[in-house]
Design brief:
The chain has 361 residues and is α/β, with parallel strands linked by helices. Helix content is 42%, strand content 14%. Bound molecules: uridine-diphosphate-N-acetylglucosamine. Uridine-diphosphate-N-acetylglucosamine binds next to helix 1, helix 5 and helix 10. InterPro entries: UDP_GlcNAc_Epimerase_2_dom, WecB-like.
């Protein structure tokens, strides 16, 4: 069997880490196309080296652009590569523009499409990711769902027959990285001004809903700046760009900005932190798996399981909370309870390879 994985952004590379490792030592051929949606070394290259992923077989070098330009350029660039490769499966990941472009290009060429992380829904139609995931699910032949909740959404949309519950491949990567960090005693590499042996909060912000609304962005940044412990802010390029544009100071008060971290360092930084503040889907789940309280600045989450027991708390309107409430939120501890394994047992990627081989159209 020949499978082509199409990836382009940082979270897809983390998932690819698990899938590429699961293909290792099998008789199957696994090839990789990188669309180039993320091109900064800190958002792309370090994940290949850090997670031991083989270099991509094809790099499309698409880069940034409006949604239409970015997605359309990818579609045009993928056609000839798929034509040459003619894989048994095109495997697409998550909900980015790279996911949608690969699914549409492959479906139109009558190549079987499998969607990893199928069935997630925010039901927020102003998010580009919501359209990407719904459209991808409906044109894919095999829907590999991470959770029971996702399976329920797929069934509700008439897609039950094409859906398989495999678990979340991010668990595979996160838990094995955690074990390596703990056994090797790896210290977190944090922005200047943060002592890893003293309490700190770890923060990331990159979603358009937050970064592209100046008022909302200003309230989130002020809330973090008023924290009573330093805030390690791992700044996505889009956050830096918007703050410069709107005159928002990323070094105010408790804020200590730094670059995004390679995966192993991110896991070490979450483990050593008092809590996480984010709008990233992946980081909400990583905080949950690493038993660190998370505060999510969004109106909803696709990863609803993280909300149970208060491990993750949603803040739909950051401006509704004053500095004291924010401080209390960021200092909260969560009582340990038996949480089960809502995201699977850390062997999802092997299940993905098995299902692709068994279901092969
Ligand atoms: C994309 C995904 C989002 C995912 C995120 C993970 C879509 C619609 N969004 O968002 O679902 O959560 O990746 O990080 O696909 N930029 C750089 N260097 C880079 C890449 C981007 O500077 O390597 C800047 C550019 O100014 C670009 C902006 O970031 O315009 C946004 O990049 P883009 O790829 O459009 O989306 P992300 O916000 O990264």
């Amino acid at each position: 069997m020949k499978v082509i994985s199409v990836v382009g952004t940082r979270p897809q590379l983390v998932k690819l880490g698990a899938v590429a490792a699961a293909f290792d030592g099998t008789p199957h051929e696994h090839r990789i196309i990188h669309t180039g949606q993320h091109y900064d070394a800190g958002l792309s290259d370090v994940f290949f080296s850090g997670l031991g992923i083989p270099a991509p077989d094809h790099h499309l070098g698409i880069g940034s652009g409006s949604h239409g330009v970015q997605t359309g350029t990818m579609l045009a660039a993928l056609d000839p590569v798929f034509e040459r490769e003619r894989p048994d499966w095109v495997l697409v990941y998550g909900d980015t523009n790279s996911t949608l472009a690969a699914a549409v290009s492959a479906a139109k060429m009558h190549l079987p499409v499998a969607h990893l992380e199928a069935g997630l829904r925010s039901f927020n139609r102003s998010m580009p990711e919501e359209h990407n995931r719904v459209l991808t699910d409906h044109c894919a032949d095999l829907l590999l769902a991470p959770t029971r909740e996702a399976m329920g959404h797929l069934a509700g949309e008439g897609l039950r027959k094409r859906s398989e519950l495999v678990g979340d491949v991010m668990v595979d990567v996160c838990l094995s990285t955690r074990d390596r960090v703990l056994s090797a005693g790896i210290r977190p590499s944090l922005p200047e001004g943060i002592d890893p042996d003293r309490p700190y909060v770890l923060a990331t912000l990159h979603r358009a809903e937050n970064t592209d609304d100046p008022g909302r962005l200003r309230s989130i940044v002020s809330a973090l700046a008023a924290s009573d412990v330093p805030v390690a802010l791992l700044a996505h390029p889009r956050l830096v760009d918007r703050c410069e544009r709107y005159g928002i100071d990323l070094t105010a008060g408790a804020l200590r900005p730094g670059e995004p971290l390679p995966y192993r360092d991110l896991v070490a930084a979450v483990l050593a932190s008092r809590g996480v503040v984010t709008d990233s889907g992946g980081l909400q789940k990583e905080a949950y798996l690493l038993e660190t309280p998370c505060t999510t600045v969004r109106t909803e989450t696709e990863w609803v399981e993280t909300l149970e027991g208060g491990w993750n708390v949603l803040i739909p309107e950051p401006a509704d909370h004053d500095a004291a409430e924010w401080r209390e939120l960021l200092a909260r501890t969560v009582p340990g309870t038996d949480r089960g394994e809502p995201y699977g047992d850390g062997k999802a990627a092997h299940r993905v390879v098995d299902r692709l081989a068994e279901v092969r159209p």
